[in-house]
Structures are given as C-alpha cells and as structure tokens.
Amino acid sequence: MRFERCHIISMKDFTRDEMDYILDRAAKLEPLARGGRSDLLSGKILALLFYEPSTRTRMSFETAMLRLGGNVLNLGSKEATSIVKGETLADMIRVVSTYSDAIVQRHPSEGSALMAAEFSSVPIINGGDGAGHHPTQTLLDLYTIRKESHLDNLDIAIVGDLKYGRTVHSLTYALSLYGANITLVSPPQLNMPDQIKADLKARGARVSETENLEEILDSIDVLYMTRIQKERFPDPTEYKKVAGAYKITTEHLENVRESMIIMHPLPRVYEIDSSVDTSSHARYFEQSFYGVPIRMALLTIVMGVEV
Asked: Longest Cα pair distance anywhere in the chain, in angstroms?
C-alpha cells in the first residue's frame, strides 16, 4: 500500500482496499496486543503531542508502541513546555519531528493536523483535530464492527452529538464505502453538518435522520452512542438544552435484534446506563481495546515495517 512515511489525517483520504489492508494487519497483530512484546519497532521513537485531554487514544498508542519494542516521547502537561512561552504549533512540529520517527497529534483546532503535516519531516497521525476528524478511532470502530458484527450493508444508528463529534464525522465517511444504511439520531441543534451529509450522499451513502431513537432500535445491527460534548459548546446555555437528550437502558433492549451491538468511543457520561454493561449487546469496552492492534498496525505501516 502507499502508507509508508505518509500522514494519516482524514478518512476521506482512504480507499476501501486501504482500510481493509489496515484491518487485516491489525488482525495479525491482535494476539501480540493481548500480551507480549516484539522487536518490530525496536529503535523507533513515537512522539505524542496532545494539546487536549486523552486517555484511550494516548495510552493505546503508548501500549502499541511498547508492545512493538519502540519508545515513546510524551509532551505531557502543556504548562511544562514552551507552549506557555508562545511557541507556535509549526515550530513545535519542526523540532519534535527531528526527535522522532512519527508523531501522533491531538489539537483543539480543526485542520491542525493537516497544517502540522506541512511542517513535519516524519509521518503525522491525527489523534483528533477539534470537531474535524479522528481517523484512528474510525479504524478501530471498523475493526470492532467487522469482528463483532459485519461491515457490508450494515444498518447502523449514530446517536448524540453529530455536529461537533469528530469521531462520527470520520466514521460516516468510512462506512459510506461499505454500503452502510446510516441513520443519524440527534436533537436539531446537533444535526450532522450539511456539508458532511452532502459529501456522504455524493459518495453513494444511504443516510436518513430522526430525533426519535426508540423508533429505530429494532431495525439496526449497530447502535453507536456518543457523548454530548460540553467542551465543544461556545455557549453553556445551549449545552444545557441538549444535555441528557438520549440514554440507553436495559429496557430499551427488549425488542432489538439478538445480534445488535452497542458501541461508544468513550468516555461516557449518562448516555449508556451501567446496567447495559453486562448485556450481550455491549461492546464498548472491547471496542476500546481494539485501539491497540489498530494503532500497532498503523505504526508499523507508516514506519515501513512488514508484519
């Protein structure tokens, strides 16, 4: 494939064959992800530049790199870096790319990953750029769906913050290449941006919208819940209007398909009741683990190492 020393910025840049290639490589690496260590990336260094809080993305990249025998440089607290002195992102990237073999960046500004790629001498992997894209989350989501359900002609409902949710923006682009039937469920204030919906339809995706989650629960293969992201709202009063709009409990699962799975990129707040955790439908903790083999696959690919 064409990924060696390339940047991973947006799911819009991927073909279906390329996504399948990554998923297949992750499957090869999953046993190692579950416990063990190799020397595939011995001597390689991964730099983590996280300008926003992260648990799963940051730690799964660290785990992936360590399982592969490499080392990790972590930016740590912004207050302990030259960011507080006014250092620009461009200069930070110029410097850190001389210390490492690849960089994973998370930043609050949409488009920041693309900008970083312009100044980096090593591959940039987008770990989330504001309300823009989160391609590695999408790849682990696809891996979860492929393992726990099926990808082709999937019936999926994506629920919650569809306006600011970079996770769902990336996921819908990817699913459009697998012939998915996508139902978007959100309050009107958090509808999927019109431009993304237009792009999806131009790519041949089947997309519908509703505010009523309960009316479609019995007709889907995957229920993809998301958090209403308080930190993305410019006006706190607008957040209060939609906070708690959707919550799944065990009572909602009585008439769903037996094989239906529930996913969530985490962290959750109130949108999935803890009683659902022990149901046969819950897959969000498995989903979180699958970030390790997916990120192992990506790291070996961009660093040009065969598996």
From this structure: 57
